[in-house]
């Protein structure tokens, strides 16, 4: 396994009598894109703030790049870039001036800083507007400026809080591409979001947060297998002997359930994308295959399924 | 706990690096912001008008006494000609306003612009941000006041045609210093409110309320409290003296009152004591009332007031510092 970048053990943060983060164990490896997912108030931002040393944990431990953020915050913050939720800039200053301030706070000499700033801004498509005041920037441009801002310190890791919130679909798509590019450069990315379908596209692994705990974690596929009990849904339209076709479909390896929907339509639940195998089985059972469709499990489904179970359990417990 | 484990605990608890990392980056950026802001333009115009107006009025009033008064230059600051108040009266009124306008949105402004978490995620401590902002406002205030001060002296040189004596210059320098520190109190107060209130307008209103309170109401209240705390029942001199002493002690809680006392002693060498001192047998042996005090003596007279102003600044800043360190960063 590659190097651990963030590691928490029993990490807990209490505000008065509200538990924001509850005995969290989280491990993030070098070079991956990890998505922290969960509704607002599930402890994502608090976890991030503790990882950056901006809030002290009530108990438990957090290590970032092997450092304790509460005791060595400067080293941690020099290596980790943070893009907060709805990031702000000094509107009356230009893009370059804003980034120069960041560079100075990082102790980067002016000449070096100018080179890095120009490179970063050009790279993020802001080269044309770098001398314009930030107040003229759109939401998407600000978000890209925020990425340029963290790139100035040449971080090993970037933490983003709700990076695609408020962006139009195209802007969000572009931004996800930027995240992929960062990963390609070897930068570890941790992103917190409640926009599940967007995160699903880019994340190597995800953790579902609920009430300060990480309820589930793993790759999207793993979670689908675990919680959707055959998360792929394959729709077939086959003319032929219903019983034989159903039987053949059931015998395909990896199929968990087959339902006849009427009018020659079958719904197959499977653990993976078994379109080819299902088609072959239907044809071998003398069926005439008319259509074939697959629907991959989405994080939204997993999420909804999981919380249905959780709420169901808590209702049972209460009763 | 053994000594070694204690030491281990100590090293575990110490933070890495200097709390002042990035301080000057903050100071330069904030000063540049303040000096180019539109509120600064307004203040500059306001101050220029006051300075020229007050100096002009004072000059037309004191031209007649040229050659007779050894501290002519000081009069430039203190003499008024109705309806224009003297320059120092203007200052004790204006300096708090300038100071408040410099810092009332120092901290909450960063939260409202949503830049706070981005700035604090840079490798600096909160100390550097807070102190850097205070220093930037302090330097800006000092710069503005020094400019006005030089302006008036220049006007005086041209208008009166008499160069100031060495002692006059020394008194004027001390006056400038005291004015800057008087502003420091209001800087720290407005900054404290900018930490306490999330709305800059609320912080500005609270600061202005405090300013009005000390400017107008505190003297009246000091009189009332003095009557309650040490009432005059019999009308005997001891009682009246005690009452007056109490009133002055209470009044001295106000920075405006302290500043007034400092100005009186520094700019009018004939003032031999501040507060109630005139009534008490503290006069140097053989002193003749009306002769000017040497600078050293004037300075001694106002030393407690000056340290009081500085102490108030430090106290308010420290209070803000503690509150800011404990503040949650999330918006």
Task: Characterise the protein shown here.
The complex is a heterodimer of chains A (about 325) and B (about 325). Chain A is about 40% helix and about 30% strand. Chain A has helices at about 45-50, 75-80, 95-105, 110-125, 140-150, 170-185, 195-200, 220-225, 240-250, 275-285, 300-319; strands at about 5-15, 20-30, 35, 60-65, 80-85, 155-160, 190-195, 205-210, 215-220, 230-240, 255-260, 265-270, 290-295. Chain A has a six-stranded mixed beta sheet with strand order 5-6-7-3-8-9, sandwiched between helices. Chain A has a four-stranded antiparallel beta sheet with strand order 11-12-10-13, with helices on one face. The longest helix of chain A has 20 residues, at about 300-320. The radius of gyration of chain A is 24 Å and the shape is globular. The two termini of chain A are about 45 Å apart. The mean pLDDT of chain A is about 90. Chain B has about 325 residues and is an all-alpha fold. Chain B has helices at about 5-15, 25-35, 40-60, 70-80, 85-105, 110, 115-120, 125-160, 165-195, 200-230, 235-250, 255-265, 295-325. Chain B is globular. Chains A and B meet through helix 1, helix 2, strand 5 and helix 3 of A and helix 2 and helix 7 of B.
Q: Which SSEs are present, and which pair or pack?
A:
The complex is a heterodimer of chains A (319) and B (331).
Chain A: E1 4-15, E2 18-29, E3 33-37, H1 44-51, E4 59-64, H2 73-79, E5 80-83, H3 95-105, H4 110-123, H5 139-151, E6 157-161, H6 169-184, E7 188-193, H7 196-202, E8 205-210, E9 213-218, H8 220-227, E10 232-239, H9 242-251, E11 255-262, E12 265-270, H10 275-284, E13 288-295, H11 299-318
Parallel strand pairs in A: 3-7, 3-8, 5-6, 6-7
Antiparallel strand pairs in A: 1-2, 1-4, 8-9, 10-12, 10-13, 11-12
Helix pairs in contact in A: 3-4, 4-5, 6-7, 8-11, 9-10
Chain B: H1 3-13, H2 23-36, H3 38-62, H4 72-78, H5 87-103, H6 108-112, H7 116-120, H8 126-160, H9 166-196, H10 200-229, H11 237-251, H12 255-267, H13 295-326
Helix pairs in contact in B: 2-8, 3-4, 3-5, 3-8, 5-8, 5-9, 5-10, 8-9, 9-10, 9-12, 9-13, 10-11, 12-13
């Amino acid at each position: 396994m590659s190097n651990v970048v963030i590691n928490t053990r029993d990490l807990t943060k209490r505000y008065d009598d509200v538990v924001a983060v509850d005995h969290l164990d989280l491990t993030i490896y070098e070079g991956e894109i990890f998505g922290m997912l969960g509704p607002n108030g599930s402890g994502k931002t608090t976890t991030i703030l503790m990882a950056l040393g901006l809030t002290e944990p009530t108990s438990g431990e957090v290590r970032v790049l092997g450092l304790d953020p509460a005791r060595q915050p400067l080293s941690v913050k020099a290596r980790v870039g943070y893009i907060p939720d709805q990031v702000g800039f000094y509107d009356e200053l230009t893009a370059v001036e804003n980034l120069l301030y960041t560079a100075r706070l990082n102790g980067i000499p002016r000449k070096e800083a100018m080179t890095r700033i120009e490179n970063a801004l050009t790279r993020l498509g802001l080269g044309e507007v770098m001398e314009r005041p930030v107040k003229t920037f759109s939401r998407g441009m600000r978000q890209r400026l925020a990425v340029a801002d963290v790139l100035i310190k040449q971080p090993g890791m970037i933490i983003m809080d709700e990076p695609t919130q408020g962006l139009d679909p195209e802007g969000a798509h572009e931004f996800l591409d930027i995240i992929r590019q960062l990963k390609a450069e070897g930068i570890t990315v941790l992103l917190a979001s409640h926009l599940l379908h967007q995160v699903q596209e880019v994340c190597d692994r995800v953790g579902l947060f609920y009430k300060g705990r990480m309820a589930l974690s793993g790759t999207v596929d793993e979670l689908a297998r675990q919680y959707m009990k055959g998360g792929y849904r394959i729709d077939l339209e086959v003319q032929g002997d219903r019983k034989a076709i159903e039987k053949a479909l059931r015998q395909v390896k990896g199929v968990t359930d087959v339902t006849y929907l009427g009018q020659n339509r079958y719904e197959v639940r499977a653990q993976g994308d078994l379109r080819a195998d299902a088609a072959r089985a239907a044809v071998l059972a003398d069926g005439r295959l008319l259509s074939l469709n697959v629907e991959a499990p989405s994080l939204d489904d997993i999420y909804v399924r999981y919380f249905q179970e959780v709420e169901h359990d808590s209702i049972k417990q209460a009763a | 706990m053994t000594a070694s484990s204690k030491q281990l605990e100590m090293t575990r608890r110490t933070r890495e690096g200097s709390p002042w990392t990035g301080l000057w980056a903050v100071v330069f950026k904030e000063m540049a912001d303040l000096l180019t802001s539109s509120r600064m333009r307004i203040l500059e115009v306001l101050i220029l008008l006051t300075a020229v107006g007050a100096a002009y009025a004072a000059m037309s009033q004191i031209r007649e006494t040229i050659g007779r008064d050894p501290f002519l230059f000081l009069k430039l600051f203190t003499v008024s000609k109705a309806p224009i108040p003297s320059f120092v009266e203007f200052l004790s009124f204006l300096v708090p306003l300038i100071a408040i306008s410099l810092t009332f949105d120092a901290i909450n402004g960063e939260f409202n612009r949503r830049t706070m978490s981005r700035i604090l995620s840079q490798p600096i401590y909160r100390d550097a941000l807070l102190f850097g902002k205070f220093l930037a406002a302090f330097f800006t205030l000092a710069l503005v006041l020094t400019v006005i001060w030089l302006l008036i002296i220049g006007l005086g040189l041209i208008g009166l045609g008499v160069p100031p004596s060495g002692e006059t210059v020394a008194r004027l320098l001390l006056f400038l210093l005291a004015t800057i520190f008087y502003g420091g109190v209001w800087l720290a107060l407005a900054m404290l409110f900018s930490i306490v209130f999330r709305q800059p307008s609320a912080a500005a209103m609270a600061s202005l309320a405090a300013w009005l309170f000390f400017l107008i109401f505190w003297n009246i209240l000091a009189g009332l409290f003095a009557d309650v705390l040490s009432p005059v029942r019999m009308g005997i001199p001891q009682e009246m003296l005690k009452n007056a002493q109490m009133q002055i002690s209470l009044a001295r809680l106000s920075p405006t009152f302290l500043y007034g006392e400092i100005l009186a002693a520094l700019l009018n060498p004939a003032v031999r004591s501040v507060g109630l001192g005139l009534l008490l047998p503290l006069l140097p042996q053989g002193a003749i009332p009306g002769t000017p005090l040497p600078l050293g003596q004037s300075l001694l007279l106002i030393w407690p007031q000056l340290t009081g102003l500085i102490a108030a600044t430090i106290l308010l800043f420290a209070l803000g510092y503690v509150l800011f360190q404990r503040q949650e960063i999330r918006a």
